[in-house]
Amino acid sequence: MMQLIFTKEDLFRCIQVLQSVAAGRNTLPILSNVLIRATNGQIEIAATDLEVSIQTVVPGTIVDEGAITVSARKLSEIVRELPDQEIRLSTTANDRIEITCGEGVYKIIGLPDDEFPALPSISGAFFTIDGELLCSMIDKTEFSASTEETRYFLNGLYFDLTPEITQIVATDGRRLAVASSDALIPPPQEPIGIIVPLKAVREITKTFAESAEVKVCLLENQIVFADDDSTLTSRLVEGEYPKYQQIIPSDNEVHLTLNVDKMLGGLRRVALLSNPKTYSIRLDVQDGKVRISAKAPELGEAYETVDVESGDGEIQIAFDARFLVEAVGHIQAEDFRLELKDSLSAAVLKPAGDDGHLCLIMPMRLDS
Amino acid sequence: MRHILHADFDAFYASVEQLDNPTLHGKPVVVGGSAEGRGVVASASYEAREFGVRSAMPMRTAQRMCPQAIRVGARFDRYREISQGVMSIFRDLTPLVEPLSLDEAYLDVTAVVDNGRQPPEIAADLKRRVKYELGLTISVGVATSKSIAKIASDMDKPDGLTVVALGEERAFLAPLPISKLWGVGPKTAERLIAEGVETIADIAGCDEEWLRERFGRHGAQMQRLALGQDDSPVVVRRETKSVSAETTFARDTGDPDELQEVVSRLSQRVANQLRRKQLQGRTVKLKLRLSDFTTFTRQRTLPYAVQSAEDLSQSAGELLRAELYGRRRFRLVGVGVSGFEQSEELPEEPRQLRFSGFG
Q1: Which CATH number applies to A248-361?
Q2: What residue spans define the domains of chain B?
Q3: Which positions fall inside the UmuC domain (chain B) (predicted)?
Q4: Superfamily of domain A127-245
């Protein structure tokens, strides 16, 4: 019989990550369970919904090796409420587990571990990338991905890997975000383009944010990310990603440099009085200033003026305030460049002095 | 107890052409696009029908069947004018008029009957008045429900009058082929005939469970109509459920640019109609017909309602691109919108633009 000892903190942290991967009800019962396995002196916990899988090493003491699966939700709920003391977890007859902590004893009915799906691991050639960089590239793009199910191939991040550059791209058809780096080692010899579903992307940032090195390996219609402790596998989204480079304009002639914090504050405040149906917000660029204004019927109106740090031009343009706030809010720099062409063309936003991040937003227009 | 009339013009477009041009009188006339332009017959006069010419037939086929037929192009403005005339005659009789198209309508004349007039007399008066005022004949079916009135008006064309009195509904329907029944299209008819169900009486006599198993709720509905049970009301204002436009190419094409160009043009036409009707819809539909006449539609429901030609052309264009593979060549392309939401507020509100060519 398996017998393990954990601290509450270690066990809870791991289960929390896994619980969001484990499938909800209404699927195979085994998929709503986590696998707990102690072999070769290591304790591993795993969860899968057959689209995304994670296995991770949990610090703990092995008294006896073994394996079991148990409801992810129940285990997480119980561990969350336990006092901050040593947790003993053991298997008993008939696929049950018994948790003892302080004065409490909790017995949960599980399922045998051999019913749990086999999980892939890194095999064959792989790339490596700094985990913090990978997560920051995801953070700079993910907010632009579509969550509309009709455009399933936009419900993910596009990993555009070429010998020259690694780009992560997200778009919902109205805005686009691209993060670039050359941090993939070794660079691929041929261009690779894959779509990683959003569910997996969110788990990547939870799992690998502090990893010094993440291995990335492509299997047939799957991608595997792994560091020393955790392995995350995801099915790839099938479908052709739009040719995003084509829509990134190079002829936006109005170039403005603006302060991120000033602009973000102004946008957030004025947006409070934007039309709650459209979130439309207007930018009037003139005489070295950007006037942000919004108007909501039967509610009120607001405007605020932000000085342009450098650059000049004259333009009137309207946007969905949420898109602007999200894009500016994800810029990792003190200043950003706003490049505009006219009131009907996409605006480019980039951190000043950094070509590794770009956001593109289509404006709104008054219907004639 | 209701009294319903179904009235429609006989060979509407062709009759209007004969009316306006006396030299066409008594001659085979077909209305529609030219054979060279791959037009189809929109309407054929009874003289042309004797040669087997039918509407929706390719013009080339029609001219082969009846070489002496005189082809004239359609003049929809004129047909609309006559249509307004006839509908106003109908409305003189009862406000409960439900137009189905330019040339046909249901009339609920229950109140007129309650005032002491007999349904056959009402129908005969109506026919006389249309003939006198417009110079055209209509055929009228009189019954206690819409579905039977419609079948009846078709029984004695042209210039017909068929009355199905209360209590005679089932006997009237019984011997008719199933294809006459409302909601039984060619596919359903084929399936029913394969099962030995050929007349409306056969459907009426079917085991309800048996029908339901094969045709679901539609099966139960067919049986109710076959039994003469139809209480659907005459709806005065028919809501627009969809708006569409389509075109047949002079030459089949598989060229993506040419096809996209046509989709854009059709989108513009649909957008104009939507704007006029103050409608915006969430479901965009693309209709395609291949060289071998296989016809199918692809549709997408958007998370927001659209009205502009640009939005339509983008969505329809995406649906189109997914169908461009192999050596497929297309004969017809159509663009349509349904799933309407009112668009009264649309003109004042800013509208989010999208990247072109994106999902």
Answers
A1: 3.10.150.10
A2: 1-166, 170-226, 242-345
A3: 4-185
A4: DNA Polymerase III, subunit A, domain 2 (3.10.150.10)
Tokens representing A7 are 């601290």
292-321 in B: which are within 8 Å (CB) of A? 300-303, 307-308
The full 3-state SS of A11-56, as one line of letters, equals: HHHHHHHHHCCCCCCCCCHHHHEEEEEEECCEEEEEEECCCEEEEE
Which residues of B are the active-site residues? 104
Residues of B in contact with A318 (CB under 8 A): 350
Q: By C-alpha distance, which of B227, B220, B185, B167 is closest to B202?
A: B227
Asked if A366 lies within 8 A of B350 by C-beta distance, the reply is yes
**Which residues in chain B have Cβ-Cβ distances shorter than 8 Å to A363?**
353
CB of B194 less than 8 A from some CB of A? no
Confirm or reject contact between B344 and chain A (CB < 8 A).
Answer: no
Please provide the CATH number assigned to the domain covering A3-115.
3.10.150.10
Residues of B with CB below 8 A from A279's CB?
Answer: none
What span, in angstroms and rounded, lies between the C-alpha atoms of B38 and B306? 32
pLDDT tens, per residue, chain A with 368 residues: 899 999 999 999 999 889 888 877 657 889 999 999 999 999 999 999 989 999 999 999 999 999 999 999 999 999 999 999 999 999 998 999 999 999 999 999 999 999 999 888 888 889 999 999 999 999 999 999 988 776 788 899 999 999 999 999 999 999 999 999 998 999 999 999 999 999 999 999 999 999 999 999 998 899 999 999 999 999 999 888 999 999 999 999 999 999 999 999 999 999 999 988 889 999 999 999 999 999 887 789 999 999 999 998 899 999 999 999 999 999 999 999 999 999 889 999 999 989 999 999 999 985 43
Interface predicted TM-score (ipTM): 0.82
Question: Using CB atoms, which residue from B301, B302, B346 is nearest to A367?
Answer: B346
What's the token pair of residue A89?
């977890």
β-bridge partners, A285: A290, A315
